Amino acid sequence: MAAPKYVPPPVQQTKYYQSTAKIKHSSGVERPAEIYIHNANEAGTGHPGPDQGYALRLVKDFKDKIFLFPGEHWQDASEVAVLTALKRASLFGRAPCAHDIEAGLWIWGYLDSNPEDQLIEIRKGNFGHIGSGHNYLKRRYVSDAVSSSSLKRPLDQIRMDYGKSWRTMIDSSKLEER
User: Fold this and answer.
1) Residue 164 domain-assigned?
2) Does residue 19 lie in a domain region?
3) pTM for the full model?
4) What is the total count of domains within the chain?
5) Are 34 and 68 in contact (CB under 8 A)?
6) Which end of the chain is more exposed for a tag (fewer CB within 10 A), N or C?
7) Is 20 inside any structural domain?
């Protein structure tokens, strides 16, 4: 509809607000906390992955399924399972799932009712109070001891590998670095 002749033509309004120009972070990434390239050669960098805290919820479902021997505690077994599961999930670039927790429990023999004595000794000698805040390096060594190639296999293959020889999945010399 046309405007009457006595109505003045619209005047272009000046803009009163203008947002500031965005400045890129000095690292060149949009979000400074985002890690795009993992440098495996850098000590203590870990294995970053999304939603890692979910593993703490998932591990509770396995409390009644594991086999502990005298001198072992649920807190230590769950911490080891979570560490291994987080490494496995991050290798696939996703959040942890129940299969990752189960893989961690199989690799360390917690789902076996009769594991070898040597594996039990490794667990007793290295996993005591591993969940404590002052044991960061001990947790790193546990995570590093499990080979990435073993973790990339399907869960059924991990079960079979454990049955054949758990030693192929664990480098126990990395646990002795402490």
Assistant:
1) yes
2) no
3) 0.74
4) 1
5) no
6) N
7) no
